[in-house]
UniProtKB/TrEMBL annotation:
Protein species of origin: Drosophila mojavensis
GO molecular function, one term: ATP binding
InterPro entries, alphabetized: PM/HMP-P_kinase-1, PyrdxlKinase, Ribokinase-like
Enzyme class: transferase
Full protein name: Pyridoxal kinase
Pathway annotation: Cofactor metabolism; pyridoxal 5'-phosphate salvage; pyridoxal 5'-phosphate from pyridoxal: step 1/1; Cofactor metabolism; pyridoxal 5'-phosphate salvage; pyridoxine 5'-phosphate from pyridoxine: step 1/1; Cofactor metabolism; pyridoxal 5'-phosphate salvage; pyridoxamine 5'-phosphate from pyridoxamine: step 1/1
Pfam families: Phos_pyr_kin
Entry-linked CDD domains: pyridoxal_pyridoxamine_kinase
Record has Kinase as a keyword: yes
Length: 302
């Protein structure tokens, strides 16, 4: 089956009952941007792992193989234009994703694999450390597009990334593994109040966007990386122009975060912001997902 003109994503990520991370944050934007989404849940948690506690099952590789068998026996694999993977909580499940990818690529050699190697943020891992070698040695080399954050780049390359020169060196680490497009969704390179996002393409542009940090200094958001990956998948498919895809992705993220900050139930002075108060105002941002207004432009660096 040919997937020319088909927009259908198999999205293997977390499901949370409350809040917006993983498949809960990726599905709505992809659907609004015209994609059929087939969510396959790697875990089913009560809420994301940044709350005081989280409960719920982590899927096993056997459960994944079983669901996949159903798709395969019904000859549905050729229907996918994209595979998107995010939060996965078990190394054997992740290894099974590699096997699934090989089988979907047999059915559709044009499949685009977008890998968000979700492992942690700000210097700490929130998945078992055994996932790192599986991502690094088995899964990342199979990807077309990767969207790590700064910390995940450091884990994968085994090198500190604290300067722009180090960013480009890290980009080459990915390109040497034949990954065409690498997007570092955010980095803190020491410029106060600024997050810098980077994009590099083999035989293509090297881009950076400076993002003024929204919210108080120590306020942070969860699900933004997952939202980034889903939006970038959609916009890069819609436009052959990777600069436009990068700018639109950041534009929507900024609008969602702005609304989230503005609609926080109470002011920062009344104690630390609770995890539920920081949940992204995703549904309320429908219009900015459909029609991103680009304010922050990309700088071309090559
Ligand atoms: N405090 C913030 N202010 C403005 N933008 C932010 C902020 N936090 C995250 N973002 C947006 O979210 C995107 C994803 O970044 P980030 O959340 O750091 O990724 P990850 O969740 O993978 O660590 C960034 O490109 C940026 O557009
Ligand atoms: C269950 C789950 N999925 C996904 C994520 C990834 O979130 P982010 O998009 O902020 O990287 C997290 C982070 O805490 C999580 O707990």
């Amino acid at each position: 089956m040919t997937t020319t003109g088909v927009k259908r994503v198999l999205s293997i990520q977390s499901h949370v009952v409350h809040g917006y991370v993983g498949n809960k944050v990726a599905t709505f934007p992809l659907q609004l941007l015209g994609f059929d989404v087939d969510p396959l849940n790697s875990v089913q948690f009560s809420n994301h792992t940044g709350y005081n506690c989280f409960k719920g099952p982590i899927s096993t590789e056997k459960e994944l193989a079983n669901i996949f068998e159903g798709l395969e026996e019904n000859k549905l694999l050729g229907h996918y234009s994209h595979l998107l993977t995010g939060y996965i909580g078990n190394p054997l499940f992740l290894r099974q994703v590699g096997e699934i990818l090989r089988r979907i690529r047999i059915a559709n050699p044009d499949l685009i694999y977008v890998c968000d190697p979700v492992m942690g943020d700000n210097g700490s891992m929130y998945v078992p450390k055994e996932l790192l070698p599986v991502y690094r040695d088995e899964i990342i080399p199979l990807a077309d597009i990767v969207t790590p954050n700064q910390y995940e780049v450091e884990l994968l390359t085994g090198k500190e990334v604290r300067s722009e020169a180090a960013v480009w060196e890290a980009m080459d680490w990915f390109h040497e593994r034949k990954i065409k497009t690498v997007v570092i969704s955010s980095s803190d390179l020491g410029q106060p109040g600024i997050l810098r996002a980077f994009l590099s393409q083999i035989n293509g542009p090297r881009l950076a966007i400076d993002i003024p940090k929204q919210g108080d200094k120590d306020l942070f958001f969860t699900g933004t990386g997952d939202l980034f990956a889903s939006l970038f998948l959609a916009h890069s498919h819609a436009s052959g122009d990777v600069t436009e895809a990068f700018e639109k992705t950041i534009a929507t993220l900024q609008a969602v975060i702005r609304r989230t900050v503005e609609q926080m139930p109470r002011q920062r002075s009344s104690g630390p912001v609770q995890a539920w108060e920081r949940e992204l105002k995703l549904i309320q941002s429908k219009s900015e997902i459909e029609h991103p207004k680009v304010v922050l432009k990309a700088q071309r660096l090559n």
